[in-house]
Amino acid sequence: MVPVSDRLASGTAPPEQGGEDAHPVLSLALASMMDDVRAHSGAVYLLSEDEQMLEMAVMAGLPRTFAAPWERVSLTSPLPVADAVRERRLIWISGEEDMASRYPRIAVVLPYPFALAAVPVATPDTVYGAVFVTWPGSHSPDISAAERARLKAACDRLALRLERAAEKGRPVLPEVDFVGAAPVTGTSGAAEAVQMVARLPDGMCALDVNGRVTFANTAAAGLLGVSVADLLGAQLWNSLPWLNDPVYEDRYRAALLSQEAASFVAVRPPQEWLMFRFHPSRSGISVQITPASGTIQEVPADGAMNRPTRLVAISHLLNLASALTEAVGVSDVIEHVADEIMPAVGSQALVLLAPDGGRLRVLGHRGYDDPAIVNRFDGMSLDAPTPGARTLVTGVPSFFESREQLERLFPTRSATPDGMAAWAYLPLIASGRPVGTCVLGYARPHPFAPDERAVLTGVGGLIAQALERARLYDAKYKLAHGLQSALLPHSLPRLSGLEVAARYLPGTQGMDIGGDFYDVIRTTANGDVLGEVVHTDAAAVIGDVQGHNVAAAGLMGQVRTAVRAYTAVGQPPGKVMSSTNRLLIDLDADLLASCVYLHLDLEDHRVLLARAGHPQPLLRDPGGGVHILDLAGGPLLGIDPSAVYPTTAVPLSPGSVLVLYTDGLIERPGIDIEDALAELAGRLALEADRPIEDLADRLLGDSARSSDRGDDTALLLLRARH
What we know:
Helix content is 33%, strand content 26%. It is an alpha+beta fold. The strands form six sheets. The protein has a six-stranded antiparallel β-sheet. A six-stranded antiparallel β-sheet has the order 14-13-12-17-16-15. A hairpin with a 2-residue loop joins strand 16 and strand 17. Helix 11 (310-324) runs antiparallel to helix 12 and helix 17 (550-568) crosses helix 18. It is elongated.
């Protein structure tokens, strides 16, 4: 097939056909198909040359702009024409609620009542494209057997024509859209009809499917304040500045797509109110214009002007979509929905429900002063006769405009009043399965117009995607933190002559976990270090494995276990570091680690340290001086298998405090690391005499309270006692 890369703008000259003849193959086939099933619009898509894309070749009955987001459709897209091609079957959408539930992308852009069928255009061996046709919202919820058979037969005939054209090397190309009749003058047409319309006191206009005026009587021109000549060939909202508001064009779109009458009231400056009534047909729209009696609040029978406009809802919808991309956990989703959707639709309460082990779980709620009102539903069986459970199980939205309406279908609901007077139960469907129910509560009875139901159901699709991601994140978060907690020591040993305190703070970005670790190991092994016999009572280690994810946490656990093992066999500090370095290289984890390891000789009051690319420890001596220990060290663990890690002996007199930490404690955006280290040393000098647990909290400082920690932090304090 030839790719449809350059579509034709409506109203342009058709390209030269390369098919069997010069007739517009696609247009004629589409028109015949629409007539056979009495559809009011449709389009033909052709498969691109690489067979990965469907490209619109011709459209009828509607402006091309209505389908602009779907002119080129990937075969993997969750859209009716793509599904029809992939599944090689007719796809039927019964109405706006069905569309919003299954194809929320379309429902959000076109929240109008209409039915749609998408059919593949294919022979047994080759797919050539697809067709969709639409009917007004008044169509039966089911497609009839006759309609189904006629659509299939028409698409099969079109596929055979496309096959013959391809065999002859003259593939069918895109064609001109059906745009309705060309503009005519006010005196053309049947003379009697023109004279009759001219005598009417009401303004009368005719619009084609693109909204252009093809006829206008003198009364219409007088009411609008322009000449007939200025109206012909132009769109009303473009020729009249005071009508240049998307709200008014939206009423035209609603009428044309739903084929149902629509109306609105507008003010012609300075203070003349006019009523516009749209009467649609397949060929366009007849517009009746009359002076509006009374004020704007008195006029619209459908209450459209008294409700928030759809544009307001769409604005909030776009804000919600943007906000949900930033939602991390379930609580974020609830907060964003409460902030963006509740104000847009005028609801006063919100509940998010989800299935869990055959039970209904309340994930969160807003708008209820007493949590018990909502929590009574937590743990309820999915088989319970409640609207929340039914919506979750069936995937069908429910709207109850009054308390009486709800209790008529769910009598047991009368025993659990929540103070609301109307409800919308929206199914949250993601990846083809229900993931929850969103309940919106209204303090007063609330009529749900068809377009509002479509928008709300489409919103449910957005919430579902975000909720699925959020619950997955929360599960990973819980798993990761469980892993982190399991890998860090649950308690530190009590040692005679030594006080110990430790802290760990996860970062607040990503999974909020990392590779920072610490440990204190009780040991009484003797060894020969630096040519001297030492009596080691304990060993301690602090380190940081590169990364902030589950892999880093898992490797951290392996490193900590290795350090314990090498300590147990009596290796001195430098040897422990070398052995751990080789292990890390052998694991081939592509991650590096920094570390400080030490042996504590509590009898001789000294400490033997080895360092691998880790920040220098701080030592506060009994006299109050604070020193940055300038330890010789080797490279990061995991780089050089032959690396050597020298050992340094440092006195640890009674009353001294040794501070070991990871870089998360001193590395902060906008602060020089030397300044941060000096600040830490200053706090240590001032606070070192405090109880060691209190001292640990003081040294963490603002880090413990910060909600923006880019790195995790470990802190280990050792204080020598008499």
